[in-house]
């Protein structure tokens, strides 16, 4: 295994641990993979691997193929290779638009951003109590409001020297107004109350545009594969 693949696996493990904690997903692990029970998606297990070799791919694919409700998410650059192996294993691709992204936290301000509008307010709350059952050292939620109207929301989890950002969302009626940037800067400032060095986020296509502007870079695309029985279900319901 290359040094790059080992580092990617380390980043994936940190992201996964904080992500499942922020969303309260049951988690499991097997040889070369991590798995989360997606309670928000009809209870299907979602498996994660980073730059797998053919043997590792075959091992996790054998788990995924056992149920049409399961999915395999591969972080890595060899999308063509993953799709070829997927077809042999009875899987098919449904997406590769998301990216796992990374940020040097030292490049971010450690103070809450200036809102520039007296009608805007920030609400930041710590998630869970002192004795919460979580792998994270701390978890925070944040919201930007205008009066009682919520404009944008998001979360960050602190795991070791990582700050993992999640569920950053601006309401559809209030996009393209800079609220997403204010939100992530707010969460980054709160994260830097802890000795974090690295930020991680699983970013949608829309989010990637903003994160690149803020200094994030891509670690790799996320290739999502599901059993072919699931593909047939999706085609039938389309």
Describe the structure.
The protein folds into two domains: 117 residues, 3-Layer(aba) Sandwich (Trna Endonuclease, Chain: A, domain 1); 117 residues, Aminopeptidase (3-Layer(aba) Sandwich). Strands 1, 2, 3, 4, 5, 6, 7, 8, 9, 10, 11 and 12 form a twelve-stranded mixed beta sheet that branches. A hairpin with a 2-residue loop joins strand 9 and strand 10. The protein is built from six helices and twelve strands. The chain is globular, with a radius of gyration of 19 Å. The model has no long low-confidence stretch (mean pLDDT 93). With 238 residues, the protein is α+β, with helices and mostly antiparallel strands. Helix content is 32%, strand content 37%.
CATH architecture assignment of the largest domain: 3-Layer(aba) Sandwich
What is the CATH class name of the largest domain? Alpha Beta
- Can you write the helix and strand succession as a string? HEEEHEHEEEEEEHEHEH
By DSSP (H or I, 4+ residues per run), the number of helices equals: 6
Distance between the termini: 41 Å
Oligomer: single chain
- Domain count, please report it: 2
**How many strands, what sense, and barrel or not for the largest sheet?**
12 strands, mixed
- Helix/strand structural class: alpha+beta
Bin the strand percentage: 35-45%
Helix content: 25-40%
Q: Return Rg in Å.
A: 19 Å
Question: What ranges have pLDDT less than 50 throughout 5 or more consecutive residues?
Answer: none
Q: What is the overall silhouette?
A: globular
């Amino acid at each position: 295994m290359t040094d790059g693949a080992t580092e990617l696996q380390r980043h994936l493990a940190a992201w996964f641990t904080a992500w499942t904690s922020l969303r309260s997903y049951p988690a499991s692990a097997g040889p070369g993979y991590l798995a989360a029970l997606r309670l928000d998606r009809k209870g299907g297990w979602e498996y994660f691997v980073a730059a797998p070799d053919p043997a590792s791919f075959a091992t996790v694919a054998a788990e995924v193929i056992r149920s049409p409700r399961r999915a395999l998410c591969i972080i890595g650059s060899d999308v063509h290779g993953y799709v070829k192996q997927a077809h042999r294993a009875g899987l098919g691709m449904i997406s590769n638009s998301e990216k796992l992204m990374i940020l040097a936290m030292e490049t971010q301000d450690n103070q809450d951003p200036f809102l520039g509008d007296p009608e805007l307010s920030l609400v930041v709350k710590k998630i869970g109590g002192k004795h919460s059952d979580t792998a994270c050292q701390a978890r925070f939620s944040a919201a930007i409001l205008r009066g009682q109207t919520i404009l944008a929301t998001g979360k960050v989890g602190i795991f070791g020297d990582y700050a993992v950002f999640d569920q950053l969302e601006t309401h559809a009626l209030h996009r393209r107004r800079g609220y997403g940037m204010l939100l992530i800067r707010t969460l980054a400032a709160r994260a830097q109350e802890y000795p974090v060095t690295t930020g991680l986020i699983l970013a949608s296509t829309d989010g990637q545009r903003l994160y690149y502007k803020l200094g994030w870079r891509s670690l790799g695309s996320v290739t999502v594969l599901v059993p072919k029985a699931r593909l047939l279900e999706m085609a039938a319901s389309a």
